[in-house]
Amino acid sequence: MKVSTEQKVGLFFIVALVVLAGMIEMVQDWQPFEKQNPYHTFFTSAVGLKVGDPVRMAGVEVGKIKSITIDGMLVRVDFMVDEETAIRTDSTAMVRQMNLLGGQFLGLDFGDPQSEILPPDSEIRSAQSSNIDELVTSLDKNQQKLFNKMDQIVDKINNGDGLIGRLVNDDDIYDDLKQAISSLSKIASGLEERDIAKDLGETMANLNEVTTRLKNGEGTIGKLLTDEETYENIRSALADLSEIANKAKNGEGALGKLLTEDKLYDDFKAAMEHIRSITAKIDGGEGTIGKLVNDSDLYFDAKTTLNKVEKAADGINDSGAISALGTISGTLF
């Protein structure tokens, strides 16, 4: 079979495209005029990370991963970083997720600006991060726990446990709730039938009247709000009360001493007890005053005697000094 010139040209064009694509793939990361420094780090797991993935610092791409190998029980990741990128001794490396759809990169942090610059070919300490598989596993476990809790709640409701279970399974509670809702509906209907707007208007009118009276200085509160003299008098009275309270608190004056000195308080208490004892005796008819207060016969005798003395005094005014003694004696006896 003889190949035509057109077929040869087409085949050559296809081969050229394949070679060009391979060359682009090989040299896309080739930067002959940009110097880079090698570093490495270790992880217990590097799931999803692959050669050629970017190395980023604060979201800015600064290099590429060159190799991923097993080193004992750890995974060694070698990468190149642009020469002008400052990696410090306390910088850390972490495998990070680009997005939820996949793709990962090696993330570096700045570290402390006061720390020293880490030389090339040095190890950067790593920090293990959760990968997407671990997140999915954790989410699945939490989801399973949630479903188990929901199953328990549904079982309790079906068994009539708790308020919701009773509402679902107990017809009596349902009827009571229905009746309560009906009663509330009737109350609401009754409120709608009343002339609420009229009542509200009257209330607002009363409030306007009250505020007008207050503004005009009518009534006690109105005077307090508008009369400066009344305000100053009240303020002065409050100041005096405050001064009296301070003096009493500091033990000044009789009231202050009574509040602060224990001896004066005890004497006052003893005096009150004596007065209470005396009044009790008077109420009981003991002593002269008690008899005068409680014995009606003694009261009338004393009244009769006073009347006789009064008559004797009248007789003294009408007679001489010689007969005065005789008049008094005759009156009394």
Write the layout of secondary structure elements.
Layout: H1 5-27, E1 36-43, E2 54-57, E3 60-71, E4 74-82, E5 92-97, E6 104-108, E7 125-126, H2 132-158, H3 162-169, H4 171-193, H5 196-215, H6 219-226, H7 228-249, H8 253-260, H9 262-283, H10 287-294, H11 296-318, H12 324-332
Parallel strand pairs: 2-6, 5-7
Antiparallel strand pairs: 1-4, 2-3, 3-4, 5-6
Protein architecture, described:
This protein is α/β, with parallel strands linked by helices and 333 residues long. Among the domains are: 1-30; 35-129, Beta Barrel (Elongation Factor Tu (Ef-tu), domain 3); 228-258; 261-292; 295-325. The protein has 12 helices and 7 strands. It has a 7-stranded mixed β-sheet, with no helix packed on it. The termini are far apart.
Tell me the strand order in the biggest sheet.
1-4-3-2-6-5-7
CATH class (first level) name of the domain at 35-129: Mainly Beta
Sheet/helix structural class: alpha/beta
Amino-to-carboxy terminus distance: 183 Å
Mean pLDDT: 77
DSSP strand count = 7
Provide tags for this entry:
single chain; 333 residues; alpha/beta; Elongation Factor Tu (Ef-tu), domain 3; seven-stranded mixed sheet; 12 helices; 14% strand
